[in-house]
Design a protein that fits this description.
single chain, 332 residues, alpha/beta, Rossmann fold, 11 helices
């Protein structure tokens, strides 16, 4: 049986296509760590899920790791492999718990690297640590596979599962721009980002600037700075995808949205110091290192559909992953 673990909504979005594909073919058990219980998509309620909870700790990251290590022992009975996704602290803690039990680890979305341990923090450390415990690396791209060549385990290039639900959806260019801002490294300067975003909206009235506001209080407290940006409540993943499919441009500090916008051939301004998705740089995306650079990058960005193939996968990652897992189970 495979233990498939997740702790946040983005993790669930990327593991659900795998669960749908292996259901009835390979036995599995799902573990929800409780890292982001308040924004988990309701779609998880259709699956049997074991739930943990994160205890309060003065250091949130310590609390996530210690809670998972202390509370997860019961879920490892009869487990032959553990699958974790991405780079969250939940993924790191579950991988570590599995490693302590000498249960082989499958890492979904393996090999992403920004090569800057502080950006994004703590995700870059989590990726590196998980890679060095992993037995099966499921890499989105060839570059990701190269990044784990010196790590233990076997690597497969499968694409990114976040794209699997986008196959068949046709992009359009409508007169609005999608914005998302939430990353830890931007929280101390989120007011500066909001000020620049509002100036963009004021100066570019052809477009409506739409920002689904993240529930984090550190972000919400600056809501009133946005006079010309349309602020809306958080969206479901399906609603967010529909906006990305129809928008003219994406401005974000997210990781996964860089992949989704590229699949829809949209350009994306990435409001971060670094990106672990370099494959799309200068074609689909451009880094905006500071709020002060946003205006100039926006002004030189030509709004059009990109006539290139998405570098992050073809939308059939879960089919490839099923074949990998079936071969694993042939050898048990």
């Amino acid at each position: 049986m495979i233990l498939i673990a997740f702790g946040t909504r983005p993790e669930w979005i990327k593991i659900e296509p795998v669960i749908k594909k292996i259901h009835g073919k390979i036995p599995y058990k799902i573990l929800f760590t409780g890292q982001h219980s308040e924004i988990i998509d309701k779609s998880i309620y259709g699956y049997p899920v074991e739930n943990l909870s994160i205890d309060y700790h003065t250091n949130r990251l310590d609390g996530i790791v210690s809670s998972i290590l202390r509370k997860s022992s019961f879920v490892f009975d009869d487990i032959k492999y553990t699958m974790v996704q991405g780079d969250t602290t939940s993924a790191f803690a579950v991988a570590l718990a599995s490693f302590h039990r000498q249960i082989p680890i499958i890492h979904l979305e393996a090999g992403l690297r920004s090569f800057d341990i502080q950006n994004p923090y703590p995700e870059e450390f989590n990726r590196i640590a998980i890679s060095n415990m992993t037995n099966i690396h499921l890499c989105p791209t060839e570059q990701n596979k190269i990044n784990v060549m010196k790590c233990p385990g076997t690597s497969f290039v499968v694409g990114n599962t976040v794209l699997d639900s986008l196959v068949g959806l046709e992009p359009t260019l409508e007169d609005f721009i999608v914005i998302t801002m939430h990353r830890r490294e931007n929280l101390d300067i989120i007011d500066k980002w909001f000020e620049q975003l509002d100036l963009l909206a004021l100066d570019n009235t052809r477009y409506e600037f739409i920002l689904p506001m993240h529930p984090n209080p550190s972000i919400q407290k600056h809501r009133d700075l946005l006079k010309y940006v349309t602020v809306i409540d958080p969206l479901s993943h399906e609603e967010c995808i529909d906006l990305i499919r129809r928008c003219s441009l994406v401005i974000t500090d997210s990781g996964g949205i860089q992949e989704e916008s590229a699949f829809f051939k949209k350009k994306c301004i990435v409001c971060r110091e670094t990106t672990e998705r370099q494959e799309g740089e200068y074609v689909f995306s451009e880094l905006c290192h500071t709020p002060e650079k946003l205006q100039s990058i926006f002004n030189r960005t030509k709004i059009e559909l990109v006539d290139r193939k998405c570098p992050y996968g073809d939308g059939y990652a879960s089919d490839k992953i099923l074949k990998v897992l079936e071969r694993l189970y042939e050898n048990i």
